[in-house]
Specification:
The protein is of the alpha+beta class and 156 residues long. It has four helices and eight strands. Helix content is 21%, strand content 28%. It binds a DNA duplex (12 and 12 nucleotides) through loops.
Length: 156
DNA sequence: GCCAACGTTGGC
DNA sequence: GCCAACGTTGGC
């Protein structure tokens, strides 16, 4: 089972909002980066673990656990002229942006960047790499084990 | 609001 | 296919 880190701006969809959604499931709309799209379209499998990350907010960090809950399908916001994610080059015949459904499992204590960076096992984590902006990144099994261990501890 | 880093665009 | 210009991301 693979593991992924997926960034969401909590103003848009927080872990609490995802848990409150019907079936605790939300479509991961709004990704407009080809590499992130390709992960969703080509690599993700139903049941893969998702680390739910809050970005662009006062307390960025891992805020919850979730799972991939569908195979990929077109992101409808690409066709909506009123959406900030509208893409005039996409059409229903030729969708450009795909997404998966994500089912929230539970909220966790917030694992902030400082705490993550303090772990030697996470030294090579994509999220923490200099200049990384990718909103969906793979997480290795070792990295996931380290994070699961951190989640069992109290905050430092 | 700053700014480093990166992705995309488009002229050539 | 190069690459400069531009736009975006996202932590600080």
């Amino acid at each position: 089972m693979a593991c992924w880190l997926m960034k969401s701006e909590p103003d848009e969809v927080s872990i609490d909002a995802a848990l409150a959604a019907p079936g605790a499931t939300v479509p991961w709309f709004g990704v407009r980066n080809y590499q992130a799209r390709n992960y969703m379209r080509d690599t993700m499998r139903i049941g893969d673990v998702v680390l739910f990350y809050h970005s662009s907010c006062p307390e960025p960090g891992i805020a919850g656990l979730a799972a991939v809950a569908s195979t990929s399908y077109p992101d409808a916001t690409q066709w909506d002229p009123k959406s900030p994610y509208y893409d005039p080059k996409a059409s229903p015949e030729n969708p450009r942006w795909m997404l998966v459904d994500v089912k929230a499992t539970r909220k966790t204590r917030l694992l902030g960047l400082d705490e993550l960076r303090a772990q030697p096992e996470l030294a090579n984590m994509r999220l923490l790499a200099r200049g990384n902006r990718l909103s969906i990144t793979p997480v290795t099994a070792d990295e996931y084990r380290c994070i699961a261990r951190l989640l069992k501890k109290k905050a430092a």
